């Protein structure tokens, strides 16, 4: 539908969480699509994250199917049998091809396009477009379900995905050219290279009825203004 006829007083809240610590994180190894597990510390971080969300209503969770993400969300969903869970490979981080398993020093972490052209590496442009597609699909599913009450969904993905999507929605310099500015920031949103494992980034759609949903997904070309508000993102002391 191009214009919604629904009436709604509720908002759509989207919580973004990142996986806990892995051994590759400790060893400064590029993971990409490597299917790594959490360390004992990472499993503890997942418990801390779940405790932060203990009183938070969650209606659905979309997640990268890699083991480190599955282990991270397990404490969140273990006592919420009613929550619908949707694994989606499109929520994986950027595929790094021949660089996976190599040192962080192989790429300039400040330049998201630095790995472009290496064997098997997913171009940064393609990665951002993939994030935009899956985000549009999630919005297309969730926005029409918002009624008089708020609806809250979790997107469990990888640090590079959260940062890249937010920068894309803001049309930040490293992610300009994909779309006009679609998001603004609240006073508790701080741009970071990646979120910490215990952070919960929150993006809010204050009026989901105004989002153009066509073919079951958000139609970026018909979006008016900046319908997304990044309420929380990272920590002030780690802001770029």
TrEMBL record:
Keywords from the named record: Hydrolase
GO function term, MF aspect, one: fructose-2,6-bisphosphate 2-phosphatase activity
Binding residues for substrate: 18-25, 68
Cross-referenced Gene3D superfamilies: Phosphoglycerate mutase-like (3.40.50.1240)
Gene Ontology CC: one annotated term: cytosol
InterPro entries: His_Pase_superF_clade-1, His_PPase_superfam, Phosphoglycerate_Mutase
SMART domains with a match to the protein in the record: PGAM (SM00855)
GO BP annotations listed: negative regulation of glycolytic process; regulation of pentose-phosphate shunt
Protein name (database record): Phosphoglycerate mutase
Organism of this sequence: Exophiala xenobiotica
Biological classification of the source: Eukaryota, Fungi, Dikarya, Ascomycota, Pezizomycotina
